Amino acid sequence: MLLNKVLSVLVIITALAACSSNGRYELDNDKAPASAPDVTKVEDAHPKYEPYSRGGNKSTYTVLGKSYNVMSTGEGYAEKGIASWYGAKFHGHLTSNGETYDMYSMSAAHKTLPLPSYVKVTNLKNDKTVIVRVNDRGPFHEDRIIDLSYAAAHRLDMLKTGTANVSLEVIYIADPESAALAELKGTKQHFIQVVASSSKQRIESLATSLEQKYQVKTRVKTGDNLYRLQLGPISQSTIANKLTEKLKKEGYPSSYLLTE
């Protein structure tokens, strides 16, 4: 009985030691899969709008004694640096986003981008590119900016070297509802440049005619001895674009859109 208890305690101590030395974010003993399937035909991640997850986007978090501030949005993000990849050690385990890590999918880990984000990654040595879906945190090394899945690293031809100099560019997809609301608010003013003439009388006569026909106000801008007739303002870009195309088909092929 005593021997069994001693053995049990030793097993628990060994397990705890393993956990502390090989934590969630330490890459020791990570490796490529022993018998990987053919990943050459794995498609890029398909960018689409996804709300940022609650669990994976704490504003601040700490790993290995260092704190990181998560971005509120990935819009406009671009960076160059060193990429690494992670594989079999994490395969099947939960990501920071609460999903299951699949090293054969086009996914990645980033320290501060909101989760999930879609990123175009380019290997600067060979110009090979891949689009990945960022759903995890890492890599927690000072000189690395992204950790790629096995499949993504394979596509970029960086498995043998382990790292690669890359450029990152977020593919940002806006919330369709927010975009629709912004369109309805019409925060920008659009004008359609219809025609220019040196005859003020001709422009004024045409302005009256177009206002009646299209039920849109007009204005005349002068410069370089020309009078430029413009329809507007129009707050909604969709309507402005449609009217521009209509004008082109109805005798004003040089019409184009201006935004203020």
TrEMBL record:
It is found in: Cell membrane. One of its GO terms (biological process) is peptidoglycan metabolic process. Its EC number is 4.2.2.-. Residues 184-260 form the SPOR domain. Keywords: Cell membrane, Cell wall biogenesis/degradation, Lipoprotein, Lyase, Membrane, Palmitate, Signal. InterPro entries: RlpA (IPR034718), RlpA-like_DPBB (IPR009009), RlpA-like_sf (IPR036908), RplA (IPR012997), SPOR-like_dom (IPR007730), SPOR-like_sf (IPR036680). GO terms for molecular function: lytic endotransglycosylase activity; peptidoglycan binding. CDD domains: DPBB_RlpA-like (cd22268). It is an enzyme of class 4 (lyase). GO terms for cellular component: cell outer membrane; plasma membrane. Its main location: membrane. It is a lipid-anchor. This is Endolytic peptidoglycan transglycosylase RlpA. It comes from Shewanella fidelis. The gene is rlpA.
